[in-house]
Amino acid sequence: MQFGVEALDQHYGSAQALRQVSFEITPGECLAVLGRNGAGKTTLLKCLMGLLTPTGGRVMIDGADGTSWSPNRRSRAGIAYVPQGREIFAELTVGENIEAAARAHGTYGSPAMEEAISNFPVLREMWKRSGGALSGGQQQQLALARALVTQPRLLILDEPTEGIQPNIVALIGEVLRSLKGRISILLVEQYLDFAIETADAFVILSRGTIVETGRAGAMSRENLTRFIAV
Ligand SMILES: Nc1ncnc2c1ncn2[C@@H]1O[C@H](COP(=O)(O)OP(=O)(O)OP(=O)(O)O)[C@@H](O)[C@H]1O
């Protein structure tokens, strides 16, 4: 998917949370957005998903101005969002969570649905359990699988490693790397090592402004740490 933002501004009253934020995701790559707490990452994601209308600038989706598109329209255009709170349906089973997403996107029973589930073997084991009974790491895998069964062209992830045990972080990293080339990924992450292993390019936000951008290979860990260390 061709996806980018142009000169995004967002104000909360007189406070400015985003200032002239512009970037593009190279199709099939993973772009990591890094920044300290309060840098504007959540505000940016809300603008990308249509949960907030930016006070200035544009969200460009496949060459169209999607700034005013509803979250639903963005989802239909192929953008899947895995929020930090994961927002799975706690009262539905694992299977029902996944099947509902697949039905809503016309991918139920497709090879794509099977492939998305097979990334996370624990989900088959837990298929009939309610979502609310899963551990945090299992819920994260469910949220990712639920996003992937919709066959997105852009996957937006809000801190997918937060509070997750290392072996599951490693699995999530493997899955994301295997998707590259087929799906564009926007990763908001505070866990620097995971971002370095996963991303092709970085955008660093500080106080609502992009203070650094670069290709993954061209930025040293020290340089990245300088921007995001608390
Ligand atoms: N609803 C709001 N009303 C007023 N100010 C807000 C609101 N939401 C966020 N802000 C402010 O906007 C700035 C950016 O916040 P934002 O939550 O986007 O940052 P963040 O990088 O996601 O931080 P965190 O990692 O802590 O969630 C902060 O200064 C915050 O206090």
TrEMBL record:
Residues 3-230 form the ABC transporter domain. The keyword Phosphoprotein does not apply. One of its GO terms (molecular function) is ATP binding. It holds the Pfam family ABC_tran. CDD domains: ABC_TM1139_LivF_branched. GO terms for biological process: L-amino acid transport. It comes from the Bacteria. NCBIfam families: urea_trans_UrtE. Belongs to the ABC transporter superfamily. This is ABC transporter ATP-binding protein. It comes from Ancylobacter defluvii. The lineage of its organism: Bacteria, Pseudomonadati, Pseudomonadota, Alphaproteobacteria, Hyphomicrobiales.
